[in-house]
Design brief:
Length: about 500
C-alpha cells in the first residue's frame, strides 16, 4: 500500500518525513516535488520555496514546547509530541556544520511582578543560527539524494486526483534537433502515480490546499476567531520584562466565555508597525529591523483575542475588519500619542479616531477584554499610563484545517493522503517537522505489517508446500492441489453433476 510515496513540498515537514523513512530502510520509492529550487541554487530572496521551504530561509529558532508552533499534542499526546520534536532538532544538529553551536536558550521562571495579572509563557528555543541554514540544507539534501530520494525541482503541482491517486504538474519538454534553428520546447502535463501522498505545501501552498478542500468537500475542523489590535508604546515602559524575555508572551484565559488573549509577536529596539492588506482591507502587524541605525526604542505587539464558538468565524472576522476601516484604511487610537512612522520615515497608514465607539460596536462586546488587558498592563508597568496607542485591527485569518485521522494525519475519506506542517495545523518548524515524522512512523508501521505477514514462518511453509502432491502413490493420488485447494483430478464430480443435470 505504501510502496511509492510522493511528497508534495520539500519543506520542513516533507523533508523530515523523507529522512525518517530512509533512516529506517523504507523499502519503497520516495519522490519529492517542489516549486522552488534545490539548496545549491536557491536564492536568498526565495524565502518561502525550495529545499526546507520557509524553514530553510527562516530565523532558525526551533521552539521546543507543545504550547507553541501549532497543533501536535492533540494528535499525539504530550510525551510523543516531545519525542517527535526531539527528532526534528536532532536532524538540524546532524546536518549542521558545527552542531555544538546549536544552543538551547533556557527560560527563567515567571517574574513575580507579572503574576497577579497575566500568565507569561516562557518556553525553550533551540537556536540553529540563520547563517548556518544554507549549509544544513545542502548537507541534508545530499544525504537524501545519496539514499535514493528523487527530487523534482521548480515544478508546481497543479492538481491532485485523490480518487485515482495521481499528481499532475506541467513540465517543459525539449527537443534538440539539428534541422531546427533553435531547440524546440513545449509544455506538457505529467502525471505521477502514488500509493501514499504526503501533502506539505506550507503557507506558500495555502490556496492550493483550499482549492483541493473545496473540490473534494473535505470536512474541516472548526476554527476560533483570532482578532485584536496592534499595541505600541515606548520600549522603556516594558524594559523590565524585555530583559527577561525579548519576545514576551503575556496571556490570560476566560475559559467559561470561550475567550483567551495573548500578546503576539513582540518587536523591540527598532520596532515598526506594518500595514497588511487582506481582501482589500487594512490590518496591522509589526516587525523589527536588525540594523540598529533604525533604532527607535519602541515596542509593539499584537493583543490577539481568540474567540471560540462563533459560527462561520471567517465571515465574522471579515465583517468586523471591514467595519473598523475608514476609506479602506485602518484606525489608530491613543489617549496621548500620534501614529508612528515607518522605518522609511513615512506615517503608518491609519486614520486617527478620538474615541472607541466604532471599535466597540464592531467587536460586538468583545472589545472589553482588550480594554481590561491594557488597563492591567498599566498596573504591571506603572510608567505606561496613557503613553500608548493601538492600531485597529490585527487579524489572523486561520485557513480551514482539514479534518484528519489523529493517528495518521490522513484525510478522513482518503486514508493514503496525509496532510502535514503549515498545510495542516502547524505554525513553526519544530511542529511541522514533527508532524512529518509522525506520518513517516505510520508509513513504516504499515511497511512492517506488510512484511511481517510475508515473513511469518508458517506462511512461508504453507507457500512452499501448497502445490506439492500428497504423500501417497501417484495412482492413489486422485486429487491434486492448486493454490493450496484440492482439485478433482479425474473430473468425476463434474461427470456426476452433468448426469444429475440431465
Ligand atoms: C521569514 C520566515 C521566518 C520564519 N522563522 C521561523 C522560525 O524562526 N522558527 C519557526 O519555528 N518557524 C519560523 N517560520 C515558520 C516556518 O518556516 C514554517 O512554519 C515551516 O517552514 C512550515 O513547514 P512546512 O513544511 O509545512 O512548509 P514550508 O517549509 O513552507 O514548505 C512548503 C514547501 O512546499 C512547496 N510548495 C508549495 N506549493 C507547492 C505546489 N503547488 N507544488 C510544489 N511545491 C509546492 C514550497 O515551495 C515549499 O518549499 C518562519 C517563516 C517565515 C516565512
Amino acid at each position: 500500500m505504501s510502496k511509492k510515496v510522493v511528497i508534495v513540498g520539500a519543506g520542513v515537514a516533507g523533508v523530515n518525513a523523507a529522512t525518517k523513512l530512509v533512516d529506517n530502510n523504507f523499502n519503497g520509492e520516495i519522490i519529492i516535488i517542489d516549486m522552488g529550487k534545490n539548496p545549491y541554487d536557491r536564492l536568498p530572496e526565495e524565502v518561502m520555496t525550495g529545499f526546507l521551504g520557509a524553514g530553510g530561509w527562516s530565523d532558525g529558532k526551533l521552539t521546543y514546547h507543545t504550547a507553541i508552533g501549532g497543533h501536535l499534542t492533540k494528535y499525539t499526546g504530550d510525551e510523543k509530541a516531545m519525542e517527535l520534536m526531539d527528532q526534528v532538532i536532532e536532524n538540524f544538529k546532524r546536518f549542521h556544520p558545527k552542531p555544538d553551536e546549536v544552543q538551547c536558550s533556557n527560560p527563567v521562571a515567571e517574574p513575580e511582578f507579572i503574576k497577579p495579572y497575566f500568565g507569561l509563557r516562557l518556553f525553550p528555543v533551540w537556536h540553529v543560527g540563520t547563517d548556518y541554514l544554507h549549509e544544513i540544507g545542502k548537507n541534508w539534501y545530499d544525504y537524501l539524494v545519496s539514499k535514493g530520494v528523487k527530487f523534482i525541482w521548480e515544478t508546481k503541482v497543479e492538481d491532485i486526483d485523490f480518487e485515482n491517486q495521481t499528481v499532475h504538474y506541467p513540465q517543459i519538454a525539449e527537443m534538440d534537433s539539428a534541422e531546427l534553428p533553435g531547440d524546440l520546447k513545449w509544455m506538457h502535463h505529467e502525471t505521477l502515480e502514488y500509493d501514499t501522498l504526503i501533502f506539505g505545501v506550507g503557507k506558500s501552498g495555502i490556496d492550493f490546499g483550499k482549492q483541493l478542500a473545496e473540490r473534494y468537500k473535505l470536512p474541516t475542523e472548526s476554527k476560533p476567531v483570532q482578532i485584536g489590535v496592534r499595541f505600541e508604546a515606548p520600549q522603556k515602559h516594558f524594559q523590565k520584562l524585555i530583559d527577561v524575555s525579548y519576545d514576551f508572551k503575556l496571556y490570560r484565559k476566560f475559559e467559561d466565555e470561550g475567550v483567551s488573549l495573548r500578546s503576539f509577536c513582540t518587536n523591540n529596539n527598532a520596532a515598526y508597525v506594518a500595514v497588511e492588506e487582506t481582501y482589500g482591507d487594512h490590518s496591522y502587524n509589526g516587525h523589527a529591523k536588525k540594523d540598529m541605525s533604525y533604532r527607535n526604542d519602541m515596542t509593539n505587539f499584537g493583543i490577539l483575542m481568540e474567540v471560540r464558538g462563533i459560527d462561520n468565524p471567517f465571515t465574522w472576522s471579515r465583517e468586523l475588519v471591514s467595519k473598523v476601516q475608514k476609506d479602506s484604511t485602518g484606525l489608530f487610537y491613543s489617549p496621548t500619542r500620534k501614529p508612528s512612522t515607518t522605518s522609511e520615515g513615512d506615517n503608518v497608514s491609519a486614520i486617527k479616531i478620538d474615541d472607541l465607539e466604532i471599535v466597540k460596536e464592531a467587536f460586538q462586546g468583545y472589545y472589553k477584554y482588550i480594554e481590561d488587558f491594557i488597563n492591567d498592563m498599566k498596573k504591571v508597568f506603572p510608567t505606561l499610563k496613557d503613553d500608548w496607542g493601538i492600531y485597529i485591527p490585527e487579524v489572523k485569518y486561520l485557513s480551514p484545517e482539514p479534518l484528519v485521522d489523529y493517528d495518521t494525519l490522513a484525510l478522513i475519506d482518503y486514508n493514503n493522503v496525509h496532510f502535514v506542517g503549515d498545510a495542516l495545523s502547524a505554525r513553526g518548524i519544530t511542529v511541522s517537522g514533527a508532524q512529518g515524522n509522525y506520518v513517516a512512523e505510520w508509513i513504516l508501521q504499515c511497511m512492517e505489517d506488510e512484511l511481517s505477514w510475508e515473513d511469518d514462518p508458517d506462511v512461508q511453509a504453507f507457500l512452499e508446500n501448497e502445490d506439492k502432491p500428497g504423500p501417497w502413490s501417484e495412482e492413489d493420488d486422485k486429487i491434486y492441489t492448486v493454490g493450496g485447494l484440492t482439485n478433482d483430478k479425474e473430473r468425476s464430480f463434474t461427470k456426476f453433476q452433468n448426469k444429475i443435470n440431465k
